[in-house]
Each structure stands twice: as C-alpha cells, then as structure tokens.
Amino acid sequence: MDEMDLRIVKLLATHGRLSHEEIGKTVHLSRPAVFERIKRLEARGVIYGYGAKVDWEAIGLPVTAFVWIRYANKGGTTGWQITGVEVEGAVLEDLYRVTGEWCLYAKYHVASPVALQRVLDQIRSLPEVQNTMTTIALSSLVEAQERRTLDPGPQSLVS
To answer: Is 44 a residue whose pLDDT tops 50?
Structure first.
C-alpha cells in the first residue's frame, strides 16, 4: 500500500460517501485511477465495508458509556455472551479485548442511566464476570470536530 492508497483510505474512513470524482480531485488522480485503487483495496480487505456516522442523541440514545469488564476464564466465551446482551434503550457499539488488569472494553449508547444500569446488571449476571468499571462520556471532541467539518468539500479533507 503506497501513500496514495493511504490518502484514499483516510478520505473514505472519514467521509465514506465521497464519489470517486471528489476523491480524485482531492488526491489529484483521475476518476478511473481512483476506482481501480479502491477496487484493489477492497479485494485485499483493506476496505471491507462502508457505514454511517450516527447522531446517537438524535435517535434517543444520548448517553455514551464505556464499560471495563474483568472475567475469570481467559479463554472463555464471555465476550460473545456480552455481545448477546440486549436491553431496551441500549446499543453496544463496540467491544474490545484489551491488555492489562481488565479483559474487555465496551462502548455503549444508552437512553438513560436506568438503561445503563440494566446493561450492567445483565453483564454482571454472566457467570464468569468478576467486576466492571463504568465511565460516562461528557462529550466527544472527535465527533464535534467531524460535525463542524461535515461538508467542507474534499479539498480540506486530506493534508
């Protein structure tokens, strides 16, 4: 992967709906050259999907919580069990295996502190879970920056 591929990946990672023409203008390549590069990146698995940035508050899930989880069985299925936890008013955005004293790190969007409590109650009820620690986000600097530059034009997207 060369520097041009990296620039294209960065553009698509932050603005996945840019057309090949807009990307080409930004990185100074023709539309067909951009198309071929993206096709190769997809074939190699560098780009494996496209998604939407969600305003969680707009859909009734204004609270973002990060949950550290420690469990007993290091080779077990606790992580997969946590992905199966379903609570009304809560969405698990991501779940990471991590190093250090904690085993997992989860990012949830919830409707209220009560919904978060229900999530925590279900996680803590799993047999292997030993402990959790939760932090509630006050705001996101990255999401705020993305919203300010939502449609700046492709020229300002890559330095």
So the answer is: yes
Q: Is 59 exposed, middle or buried (0-12, 13-18, 19+ CB in 10 A)?
A: exposed
pLDDT at 151: 52
This prediction has a pTM of 0.79
What is the DSSP secondary-structure string of 131-159? EEEEEE-S--HHHHHHHHTSS--GGGT--
How many Cβ atoms from other residues are within 10 Å of residue 5's Cβ? 17
**Domains plus CATH for the chain?**
3-51 (1.10.10.10), 56-138 (3.30.70.920)
Task: Please state the rounded mean pLDDT for residues 116-120.
Answer: 98
Which conformational region is residue 100 in: left (phi greater than 0), alpha (psi within -120 to 50 degrees), or beta? left
Q: Using the 8-state DSSP alphabet, how is residue 64 labeled?
A: E
The confidence score (pLDDT) of residue 146 equals 73
Q: Read off the DSSP letter of residue 74.
A: T
| Alpha-carbon span 66 to 68, nearest angstrom | 7
State how far the Cα of 22 lies from the Cα of 29, in Å rounded to an integer: 10
Helices (H) and strands (E) in the chain, counts: 6, 4
